[in-house]
Amino acid sequence: MKNNNNKIEKKLRREAFSKNWKLFKQSRLGMVGLYIVFFFFILTILQPILFITGFWNEAVYHPVVGYDDLTSDFIVVDCPKEYPTEKYQSRTDCPARNEVNIKTLFYNTAEVGDTIELNLQPAPPSRRHILGTDSLGRDVFSQIMEGSQVAFLLGILSATLGVGISTLLGTIAAFYGGRIDAYLMRQSDLVLMLPTLPLLFIISAFAELKIWHLAVVLGTIGGLGGSVITIKSQALQVKVKPFVDSARITGGSNMKILFSHVLPNVAPLALLFMVFSVTGAIASESVLSFLGLLNIEMSWGLMIYLAQVEGFIFSGMKYWWLILPAGLSVTFLTGGFYLVGRGLDEVFNPRLRKR
Amino acid sequence: MTKILEVKNLEKHFEVSKGIFSRNKTIVKAVDGISFEILKGESLGLVGQSGCGKTTTARALSLLDPKTSGTILFNDSNDNSMINIDDLDEEGMKNFRRNIQMIFQDPYESLNPRWTIKDIILEPLNIHNIGSTEDREEAVKEILQTVGITPPENYLPRYPHELSGGQRQRVSIARTLIMKPRFLICDEPTSMLDVSIRISIMDLMMKLADDLDVSYLYITHDLAVARYMCNNIAVMFNGKLVEIAPTEELLQNPIHPYTKRLISSIPIPDPTYTRENYEIDFTELRSIKAANQDSSMIDLGNKHLLSTNEFEGLLY
B64 and A245 in contact by Cβ < 8 A? Predict the structure, then answer.
């Protein structure tokens, strides 16, 4: 009998999941988002696998300390003083690909027209390095993978923390009302009013920000802010439902009602908030490391930061592999999480569903 | 006959402030001094128009909202005496909560959508920690049989949205009955159901009242339902009681103009019938009042009580 019950329970759970999955699949944007997130998730777990299986040598492919001694043949040319000439349209065209300006060769005795062998850094994409190397000879693709690990860790950690805080505070505010409610609402108004990025600048000036610290700070700011208000409004709706009243008549304590009735009914909205706040966390991490304010070994923002301090950022057409992969990764992963959130919204919010 | 519940001068007032800075508050008297009693195994129908304070009365009786003043006396199962629920200690309050339950109007909202039927019906047992796990499960199956959901095993792991409206109302009746309460407050339990299911739910409740010796306070705005279900009917208007009488006595021989108006508004399913439009007429009431000036409720005999509250300006 018990076995049979378990079976029915399992079947019903599977049915509920497949029903929700069907609803989610209906939203095309949500599916696109899910594919994007899944792609980056594969990148995240692929790097350690490549290192452990020995497919990638850590000395060459390590995102931070790897170095590849790529060399290539260059023709020595003398760049003219005035443009345009026959060969070059403007100053930025000289030296062209596979050419080197003789004035930049300090310790070489080569002459104009010679072919010499030089280190190739940053190296363009090749079979050995799918996305090329940066100016220190490190593999960009490996850095992208490392960056996606950082993004997932930070995004999910800070979102979980933030949503945990805001769900608890929101339901408490709705449930107890009165002064607790007033205090929590004013507090979240205050946090909403604080500009997040300047605040993070100040924090990073006085304290060392590592990825864990940043996750806690972002989670706390997100958790005390606007989501408390939204979750409170949802909890207020649940609080006046007759099933809460009947639990109260039976003699259920406040805590019991809060945890068994109100919280589970607020959970879908909280999950939605979690997915959306992952987006915010990844974006602010990129901004902070682009500004060089994070103590972090490698991330997407840091890759663009390095391209900028080494002077490649204005030669985006020529050195696109230093800027585009990292920039697109940030854009696509945040966009992917946002789209997943939209898809979940359609599952949890019956009014958005197509009939 | 012993009384199960006696209410004396129950009042429930709400304060409505007119703004953050204004000091003066308006007081809305939702329930304004009502008194009634319910005998063991009998049921009282509370009828009246929307907003007259029926549900507020029910919520005050079930201690959902604190009452403003008045006394509620409840029959003590141990020594058959009436105890004031204000005087109850923690243990007594627990006992009281075991004996009073409420069925709500909306079967779609009164069951937690995230719980299975089993969890929903088990909840009161879990809160009061009665019996072992196996006993509780047996009790759930038994009560589901009693309310006519068979076979219970098929329904235990389901969620409320998989059931129809009538089945849900049966589940919420099962949930209230699992503690074997002695007094049930029914807040329009059949008004959201369609007519064919309505009668079966009412029959079920009457059968259970006989079998389990439960008394009802049955709130409704439908006099036909009250006539079918209740031994006595109390008519409420504007937070006050108008008239209490045994069902047939009230319907055959109404005295108060408001009761008369209410009865004349019952629809009769006959297309050729033209309704008698009852004109409000206070002459009879005034003459009775003039004869009994000292009491607040006039006893007309035959358990027929009539209120002396002034409604003359309010009815039209």
Answer: yes
Whether B111 and chain A come into contact, CB under 8 Å, resolves to yes
Across the interface, whether the CB atoms of B157 and A9 are under 8 A apart is answered yes
Instruction: Kindly state the percentage of chain A with pLDDT values over 70.
Output: 95
Dihedral over Cα of A273, A336, A46, A319: its sign? negative
Phi, psi of A210 (to 5 degrees): -100, 180
Q: What is the residue-level pLDDT of chain B in tens, covering all 316 positions?
A: 688 888 988 899 988 876 667 677 788 888 888 888 898 888 899 998 888 888 899 999 888 888 888 888 888 877 778 888 888 888 888 888 888 889 988 888 888 888 888 889 988 888 888 888 888 889 999 989 888 888 888 888 888 888 888 888 889 888 988 888 888 999 888 888 888 888 888 888 888 888 888 888 999 888 888 888 888 999 998 888 888 999 998 888 888 888 888 888 888 888 888 877 777 777 777 777 777 776 677 777 778 888 777 777 777 6
CA distance A9 to chain B (A): 6
Q: What's the CATH class of domain A23-51+139-352?
A: mainly alpha
Question: In Å, what is the CA distance from B300 to each residue of A272, B77, B243, B308, B316?
Answer: 64, 32, 11, 12, 25
**Residues A250, B124: C-beta atoms closer than 8 Å:** yes
Q: Say if the Cβ atoms of A5 and B153 lie within 8 Å.
A: yes
The count of residues in chain B is 316
> What is the CATH number that goes with domain B3-307?
3.40.50.300
Q: Is B110 in contact with A9 (Cβ distance < 8 A)?
A: no
Going from the C-alpha of B52 to that of each of A49, B47, B221, B238, B242, the distances in angstroms are: 72, 9, 10, 5, 11
Handedness of CA B281, B287, B292, B298 (dihedral sign): negative
Average pLDDT over residues A84-109: 78
| Smallest Cα distance from A162 to chain B, Å | 24
Structural domain boundaries of chain B?
3-307
Using a CB-CB cut-off of 8 Å, the residues of chain A touching B105 are: 242
Report ipTM for this prediction. Answer: 0.84
Within an 8 Å CB–CB cutoff, is residue B123 touching chain A? yes
Sign of the CA dihedral with A334 first, then A336, A339, and A345 last:
negative
Q: From the candidates B123, B125, B161, B163, which should be mutated to test the interface with A, based on the most A CB atoms within 10 A?
A: B123
